[in-house]
Amino acid sequence: MKTLIYSKRNLKELLNDPISLIFIIGLPVFLLIFMVSLNKSLSFNESFEVENFVPSTIIFSYTFLTMFSGMLIAKDRTSSFLSRMFVSPLKAYNYILGYMFPILIIALIQTVILYIVGFILGLAVTINILYSIIFLLIISILFISLGLLFGSVLKDQQVGPITSILIQVVAFLSGMWFSLDLIGGAFKKVGYLLPFAHSVDLIRDIIKTNSINTKSLIVVLIYIIGITVLAILVFKKNMKK
């Protein structure tokens, strides 16, 4: 109950910035429409085929949630809001979950809108889409937790540049723009050491074949648990300070 009450406050805070909400949803929609339409005309890359690019774009859109969540918690830290809140009986995990829950709602809205756009562009409507949404929301926790971790250690003005680097890393190492198999070597190995390519592979397999890539799922879950726990521990340390 304490977590839900704090979540309501954070949801109201997020809704007070509608321009950012429009940006984190509108930009991926534009990217999806532009690249899929261009590929239909030129047929230059199978990564941009609608069944491949829709899941890639959804996961890419979650990188903006990292920036969003990081700036929210960093703003609360620099404004001394959290310092005053620390007199409450809330624990560190209550705070982290209180930030996470409302941003998960935004992740769901992003996912649904991008799938609707994908259907318009020719993505087949199947039961696999419903299954994939469940796993996509799990993947979104990875990006939200990264943002909460960044926001717990960085200042408000530092979150933007750091998350901008993350956006580029996800774009180039997730297999979004091109298959990592095309380059291979160290580039592919680094890509699959991180969870982003595994996230894309996991969702693509669910959509195409209704099968779960167990290896990719395990890697993603390990990263989610590790980063979420680390975010809670860092936040707890800041509370003691």
UniProtKB/TrEMBL annotation:
It is a multi-pass membrane protein. It holds the Pfam family ABC2_membrane. Its main location: membrane. It comes from the Bacteria. It is found in: Cell membrane; Membrane. The keyword Transmembrane helix applies. Keywords: Cell membrane, Membrane, Transmembrane, Transmembrane helix, Transport. One of its GO terms (molecular function) is ABC-type transporter activity. The chain crosses the membrane at residues 21-38, 53-74, 95-123, 129-153, 165-187, 217-235. One of its GO terms (cellular component) is ATP-binding cassette (ABC) transporter complex. Residues 19-238 form the ABC transmembrane type-2 domain. Belongs to the ABC-2 integral membrane protein family. This is Transport permease protein.
